[in-house]
Write a structure and sequence with these properties.
With 471 residues, the protein is of the alpha/beta class. The protein has 2 domains: 1-282 and 440-457 and 465-471, Rossmann fold (3-Layer(aba) Sandwich); 292-436, Rossmann fold (3-Layer(aba) Sandwich), CATH 3.40.50.2000. Helices cover 33% and strands 14% of the residues. It contains 16 helices and 17 strands. It has a 7-stranded parallel beta sheet, with helices on both faces. Strands 14-13-12-15-16-17 form a 6-stranded parallel beta sheet, with helices on both faces. Helix 8 (260-267) links the parallel strand 10 and strand 11. It comes from Rhodopirellula europaea SH398. One of its GO terms (molecular function) is glycosyltransferase activity. InterPro entries: TagF_C (IPR043148).
Length: 471
């Protein structure tokens, strides 16, 4: 059984009644618990105790010491109608300037005076970032936060007393609860000042504290699809028993997808009602430049792109080495490794010493795909991106992720590849059964504006300028 499916089967068999994870009348922690078990801090060697679980006098003393380290950064006063919440670490180059992959075209879709951009990672970002949360690990410890801490501690104690979690699980829960608490405190402070009507985010999971702060402040949360969505996902396509807690389990109020295929995938889950899903199209900002070294590396060669995933370098390094062995006598074969943006930049350094391998940490997939002959991955949106460029895409067999592999192949645009099979020969036999528009519609900024202000009595002044399509 695939790893993710096994985690889900185990979780929902242990906890068929998700009201077990209720914390307050408006808060259910199902997703926070899933986050703890999925990330597995303990399994990664984390053994640090979390501050909020210390005795209250120690906790208050620690917070008091933190408050002496300097004043909280002033937030610009004045209400904005839209909050854009970004932790985007991905930048591309457009006309020689750094642009945010996920938010550049989103920000351009509104009049600047109507939006407030808060970023957890503003380094190198465009100058439209209004507030830097990355250095802001403190927040006013008011009565509301103390009450939330008390409720979280009581809920944790109930979980512990139930004897339904291992010691490692309980450590993971403490880590996730601390993250939830800190995130709530930081975002609550921003929301008190900015007072937006809607917030635009790219990821609802691992962000439960932020979503809860927005819910408490009456802010409508809009999620933009940012990558692969699969029926096997842990944080999408929830089973039917989520219905009993759905409205308090911290899902976004709306989700906007790239296209019809992804909307259909989400329709098989139970976390969203049909009227909460709409198609925004492919809003991702593309790169208009690629390093000359990569161009010359691929030019005149038969190039295989290997698109990786986080925490899977132990699989991909030997896989690339197996491709090198397979094509050892083919001097015109090259392998372009495209690491996942969230991976450490040195994850594939050992491969880069081979002259037939190039590791492309820079440059968006849109400027890399035209250079290659095929794409291989276990699972990645790059497999679907490839169809926009007519590039054959292959999913590699992988026991732990077989549910993702099978789902991709079932689309008719991604093809199965055995672990020992060479993709270049197989590429000649592919014939996709669907076109790119089924997966990626052209970006429609009006859908975003409509979603952001569907409940606003006065609407919003919108930009007249349309946003160019990159599909």
């Amino acid at each position: 059984m695939a790893e993710f499916a096994q985690l889900q089967d185990d979780f929902y068999s242990r906890f068929p009644d998700l009201t077990f994870f209720d914390c307050q009348t408006d808060l259910n922690l199902t997703k926070t618990v899933l986050d703890a078990l999925k990330v597995d801090y303990y399994g990664k060697g984390d053994r640090l105790e979390r501050p909020m679980f210390r005795p209250t006098p120690q906790f208050l003393l620690r917070e008091g010491v933190k408050s002496l380290r300097g004043r909280l950064k002033q937030i610009e006063s004045g209400c904005r109608k839209v909050l854009v919440a970004t932790d985007d670490r991905r930048l591309v180059c457009r006309e020689g300037n750094p642009r945010s992959v996920y938010f550049d075209r989103i920000v351009d879709s509104f009049n600047r005076k109507d939006i407030f951009v808060a970023s957890d990672n503003p380094s190198g970002m465009p100058d439209w970032v209004d507030y830097d949360l990355s250095a802001e690990q403190r927040y006013p410890l008011n009565a509301e936060l103390l009450a939330l801490r008390s409720d979280l501690l009581k809920t944790y104690q109930r979980f512990s007393d139930s004897k339904r979690f291992s010691e490692a699980d309980l450590h993971n829960l403490r880590c996730s609860f601390q993250g939830f608490f800190d995130m709530y405190g930081r975002w609550s402070r921003v929301l008190q000042t900015v007072q937006p009507e809607a917030a635009i985010i790219i990821c609802h999971y691992h962000k439960e504290g932020m979503v809860y702060a927005m819910r408490r402040h009456g802010v409508s949360v809009i999620e933009l699809q940012h990558g692969l969505i699969d029926r096997s996902d842990i944080f999408y396509c929830f089973p039917e028993n989520i219905l009993q807690v759905r409205d308090r389990a911290l899902f976004p109020d709306q989700i906007l997808t790239f296209g019809e295929y992804w909307t259909d995938v989400l329709s098989h889950g139970h976390e969203f009602r049909a009227n909460q899903i709409a198609e925004i199209g492919y809003y991702i900002q593309t790169d208009d430049s690629v390093a000359e070294g990569i161009k010359s590396f691929c030019e005149g060669k038969r190039t295989i792109m290997v698109a990786t995933q986080t925490m899977m370098s132990e699989f991909y390094v030997p896989y690339v080495q197996s491709l090198l062995a397979l094509y050892e006598n083919d001097d015109d074969v090259r392998i372009l490794v495209r690491p996942h943006p969230a991976e450490p930049r040195d994850a594939y350094n050992e491969l880069a010493t081979n002259p037939k391998v190039e590791v492309a940490n820079e440059g968006g997939v849109d400027c890399l795909l035209p250079l290659v002959d095929c794409v291989v991955s276990v699972y990645s949106t790059v497999l679907f991106d490839a169809i926009r460029f007519g590039v054959p895409a292959f999913a590699i067999e992988h026991d732990a992720c077989q549910d993702y592999v099978d789902s991709a192949i079932a689309t008719g645009v991604v093809f199965r590849l055995g672990a020992d099979e060479g993709p270049l020969n197989a590429a000649r036999l592919t014939n996709p059964t669907k076109d790119a528009q089924y997966f990626y519609r052209s970006y429609n900024p009006e859908t975003l504006r409509r979603s952001a202000f569907s409940d606003s009595p006065n609407g919003i002044e919108v930009c007249d300028q349309d946003v160019e399509s990159h599909v």
